[in-house]
Amino acid sequence: MASGTFAQTILFAVLWVEEEPVEKVEPNFGLSGKLAAETNTVKGVELKYNEPPEAAKPSTKWRLYVFKGDEQVDLLHIHRQSSYLIGRDRVVVDIPVDHPSCSKQHAVLQYRIVTEEGANGKPVKVVKPFIIDLEATNGTFLNNEQIPATRFVELKAKDVLKFGSSTREYVLLHAE
Protein backbone atom coordinates (compact mmCIF):
# COMPACT_ATOMS: atom_id res chain seq x y z
CA MET A 1 0.00 0.00 0.00
CA ALA A 2 2.82 2.38 0.84
CA SER A 3 4.44 1.79 -2.56
CA GLY A 4 1.08 2.54 -4.28
CA THR A 5 0.87 5.87 -2.49
CA PHE A 6 4.45 6.65 -3.46
CA ALA A 7 3.68 5.81 -7.11
CA GLN A 8 0.59 8.04 -7.04
CA THR A 9 2.66 10.88 -5.59
CA ILE A 10 5.26 10.49 -8.36
CA LEU A 11 2.51 10.37 -11.03
CA PHE A 12 0.87 13.50 -9.57
CA ALA A 13 4.21 15.34 -9.56
CA VAL A 14 4.89 14.37 -13.21
CA LEU A 15 1.41 15.48 -14.31
CA TRP A 16 1.74 18.75 -12.38
CA VAL A 17 5.10 19.53 -14.04
CA GLU A 18 3.69 18.71 -17.49
CA GLU A 19 0.67 21.00 -16.98
CA GLU A 20 2.74 23.98 -15.87
CA PRO A 21 2.72 26.48 -18.76
CA VAL A 22 6.05 27.41 -20.25
CA GLU A 23 6.42 31.12 -20.92
CA LYS A 24 7.81 31.76 -24.36
CA VAL A 25 10.34 34.57 -24.28
CA GLU A 26 10.31 36.77 -27.36
CA PRO A 27 13.69 37.95 -28.60
CA ASN A 28 14.51 41.58 -27.81
CA PHE A 29 16.84 43.11 -30.35
CA GLY A 30 16.69 46.59 -28.79
CA LEU A 31 19.75 48.27 -27.37
CA SER A 32 20.45 47.79 -23.70
CA GLY A 33 23.07 48.54 -21.10
CA LYS A 34 26.29 50.21 -22.16
CA LEU A 35 25.51 50.24 -25.89
CA ALA A 36 22.16 51.97 -25.31
CA ALA A 37 23.84 54.55 -23.09
CA GLU A 38 26.49 55.23 -25.72
CA THR A 39 23.91 55.76 -28.47
CA ASN A 40 22.11 58.29 -26.26
CA THR A 41 25.19 60.32 -25.39
CA VAL A 42 25.94 63.84 -26.59
CA LYS A 43 29.39 65.35 -26.05
CA GLY A 44 30.10 62.73 -23.39
CA VAL A 45 26.89 63.40 -21.43
CA GLU A 46 24.28 60.65 -21.18
CA LEU A 47 20.84 62.01 -22.05
CA LYS A 48 17.83 61.15 -19.88
CA TYR A 49 15.49 61.29 -22.86
CA ASN A 50 14.98 59.44 -26.15
CA GLU A 51 12.65 60.78 -28.80
CA PRO A 52 9.53 58.66 -29.41
CA PRO A 53 8.79 57.13 -32.84
CA GLU A 54 6.01 59.67 -33.44
CA ALA A 55 8.42 62.63 -33.19
CA ALA A 56 8.22 65.13 -36.06
CA LYS A 57 9.22 68.68 -36.92
CA PRO A 58 6.26 71.06 -36.90
CA SER A 59 5.13 73.06 -39.91
CA THR A 60 3.66 75.70 -37.58
CA LYS A 61 6.15 78.42 -36.59
CA TRP A 62 6.02 78.01 -32.79
CA ARG A 63 7.79 80.50 -30.50
CA LEU A 64 8.54 80.80 -26.80
CA TYR A 65 8.40 84.32 -25.41
CA VAL A 66 10.47 84.48 -22.22
CA PHE A 67 9.37 86.94 -19.53
CA LYS A 68 10.93 87.94 -16.22
CA GLY A 69 8.21 89.86 -14.45
CA ASP A 70 6.55 92.14 -17.01
CA GLU A 71 9.65 92.40 -19.20
CA GLN A 72 10.25 90.19 -22.23
CA VAL A 73 13.87 89.01 -21.99
CA ASP A 74 14.07 86.56 -24.90
CA LEU A 75 12.29 85.14 -27.94
CA LEU A 76 13.00 81.54 -28.94
CA HIS A 77 12.02 80.13 -32.33
CA ILE A 78 11.16 76.51 -31.55
CA HIS A 79 10.01 75.07 -34.87
CA ARG A 80 13.33 74.04 -36.42
CA GLN A 81 13.68 70.62 -34.76
CA SER A 82 11.39 67.94 -33.35
CA SER A 83 12.43 68.33 -29.70
CA TYR A 84 14.10 70.83 -27.38
CA LEU A 85 15.89 69.75 -24.20
CA ILE A 86 15.49 72.29 -21.40
CA GLY A 87 17.84 72.48 -18.40
CA ARG A 88 21.01 73.83 -16.79
CA ASP A 89 23.60 71.64 -18.56
CA ARG A 90 24.66 73.96 -21.40
CA VAL A 91 26.73 71.15 -22.95
CA VAL A 92 23.58 69.30 -24.07
CA VAL A 93 20.48 71.47 -23.66
CA ASP A 94 18.77 73.38 -26.45
CA ILE A 95 17.07 75.87 -24.14
CA PRO A 96 19.25 76.78 -21.14
CA VAL A 97 17.66 77.71 -17.81
CA ASP A 98 20.24 78.91 -15.33
CA HIS A 99 18.16 78.96 -12.15
CA PRO A 100 19.69 76.75 -9.41
CA SER A 101 16.31 75.07 -8.74
CA CYS A 102 16.29 73.67 -12.28
CA SER A 103 17.77 70.27 -13.07
CA LYS A 104 20.60 69.73 -15.56
CA GLN A 105 18.13 67.96 -17.86
CA HIS A 106 14.83 69.31 -16.62
CA ALA A 107 12.19 68.85 -19.34
CA VAL A 108 11.71 68.36 -23.08
CA LEU A 109 9.43 70.21 -25.46
CA GLN A 110 8.54 67.48 -27.95
CA TYR A 111 6.57 67.70 -31.19
CA ARG A 112 4.56 64.54 -31.91
CA ILE A 113 2.33 63.35 -34.73
CA VAL A 114 -1.14 62.64 -33.37
CA THR A 115 -4.35 61.58 -35.08
CA GLU A 116 -7.45 63.65 -34.53
CA GLU A 117 -10.82 64.05 -36.19
CA GLY A 118 -10.74 66.44 -39.13
CA ALA A 119 -13.45 68.89 -40.26
CA ASN A 120 -14.98 66.21 -42.51
CA GLY A 121 -15.09 63.68 -39.67
CA LYS A 122 -12.18 61.67 -41.07
CA PRO A 123 -8.98 61.15 -39.07
CA VAL A 124 -6.09 63.47 -39.91
CA LYS A 125 -2.50 63.46 -38.67
CA VAL A 126 -1.23 66.68 -37.12
CA VAL A 127 1.99 67.66 -35.34
CA LYS A 128 1.38 69.11 -31.86
CA PRO A 129 3.69 70.36 -29.10
CA PHE A 130 3.97 68.48 -25.82
CA ILE A 131 6.02 68.97 -22.66
CA ILE A 132 7.50 66.14 -20.60
CA ASP A 133 9.14 66.59 -17.20
CA LEU A 134 12.30 64.45 -16.85
CA GLU A 135 11.76 63.76 -13.13
CA ALA A 136 13.16 67.18 -12.29
CA THR A 137 13.62 67.69 -8.56
CA ASN A 138 11.57 70.90 -8.47
CA GLY A 139 9.06 70.13 -11.21
CA THR A 140 7.71 71.66 -14.39
CA PHE A 141 4.64 73.88 -14.31
CA LEU A 142 2.03 74.45 -17.01
CA ASN A 143 -0.27 77.42 -16.34
CA ASN A 144 0.87 77.33 -12.66
CA GLU A 145 -0.06 73.63 -12.25
CA GLN A 146 2.72 71.08 -11.74
CA ILE A 147 2.67 68.42 -14.45
CA PRO A 148 3.31 64.74 -13.67
CA ALA A 149 6.86 63.53 -14.34
CA THR A 150 7.59 61.34 -17.38
CA ARG A 151 4.17 61.96 -18.98
CA PHE A 152 3.55 63.92 -22.17
CA VAL A 153 1.21 66.87 -21.65
CA GLU A 154 -0.18 68.60 -24.74
CA LEU A 155 0.58 72.30 -25.08
CA LYS A 156 -1.66 74.92 -26.66
CA ALA A 157 -1.07 78.47 -27.85
CA LYS A 158 -0.86 80.96 -24.93
CA ASP A 159 0.18 78.27 -22.43
CA VAL A 160 2.71 79.41 -19.82
CA LEU A 161 5.59 77.15 -18.74
CA LYS A 162 7.76 77.54 -15.63
CA PHE A 163 10.68 75.39 -14.52
CA GLY A 164 11.57 74.74 -10.88
CA SER A 165 11.13 77.83 -8.71
CA SER A 166 12.42 80.19 -11.41
CA THR A 167 10.27 83.29 -11.88
CA ARG A 168 10.81 83.26 -15.65
CA GLU A 169 7.71 82.46 -17.66
CA TYR A 170 7.82 80.89 -21.12
CA VAL A 171 4.73 81.77 -23.14
CA LEU A 172 4.00 79.52 -26.13
CA LEU A 173 2.65 81.25 -29.25
CA HIS A 174 2.79 80.66 -32.99
CA ALA A 175 2.86 82.83 -36.10
CA GLU A 176 -0.45 83.07 -37.93
From TrEMBL:
Gene3D superfamilies: 2.60.200.20. It comes from the Eukaryota. Residues 84-147 form the FHA domain. InterPro entries: Cell_Proc_Reg/RNA_Proc, FHA_dom, SMAD_FHA_dom_sf. It comes from Mucor lusitanicus CBS 277.49. Pfam families: FHA. This is FHA domain-containing protein.
